[in-house]
From TrEMBL:
SUPFAM superfamilies: AhpD-like
GO MF annotation terms: peroxiredoxin activity
Gene behind this protein: pcaC
Record-linked PANTHER family: 4-CARBOXYMUCONOLACTONE DECARBOXYLASE FAMILY PROTEIN, CARBOXYMUCONOLACTONE DECARBOXYLASE-LIKE DOMAIN-CONTAINING PROTEIN
Protein name: 4-carboxymuconolactone decarboxylase
């Protein structure tokens, strides 16, 4: 069931861009938009409209929980650049450093110890960048 049946695609894109900016920062979204080409414009629209405007705006999970889920999924897929970006986003969404550590520890059980080991390395890098 669509939680926003009355919204148009344009409204979903607008809402998604707002959430995307709040979670990932204006600077990140500005860079992504500035790098958009004719080849990538459909993907950028998809991300803003669907991922951010439809899924991230659903009422079923708060942003803290969504961030925890995203971190786990990115560890599972070995998407380390995105993981580092979402460690910072998780902090903006209200997770503490201690909670991020627990998410990574939990991933060691269900994904693998090597995956968690790598995740700790990348999380530490992201956290260090915030204090530079």
């Amino acid at each position: 069931m669509n939680p926003h049946p009355e919204r148009t695609e344009s409204q979903a894109h607008e809402d998604g861009t707002t959430v995307r900016r709040e979670v990932l920062t204006d600077a990140h979204v500005d860079r992504a938009e500035a790098g958009t080409t004719e080849f990538t414009e459909d993907f950028q629209d998809f991300i803003s409209r669907y991922a951010w405007g439809e899924v991230w705006t659903r009422p079923g999970l708060d942003r803290r929980m969504r961030s925890a889920c995203v971190l786990t999924a990115l560890i599972a897929g070995s998407h380390w650049d995105e993981f580092e970006m979402h460690v910072k986003a998780a902090l903006r969404n209200g997770l503490t450093v201690e909670e991020i550590k627990e998410v990574v520890l939990q991933s060691a059980i269900y994904l693998s110890v090597p995956s968690a080991n790598n995740a700790f390395k990348h999380a530490q890098k992201a956290l260090d960048e915030l204090t530079e």
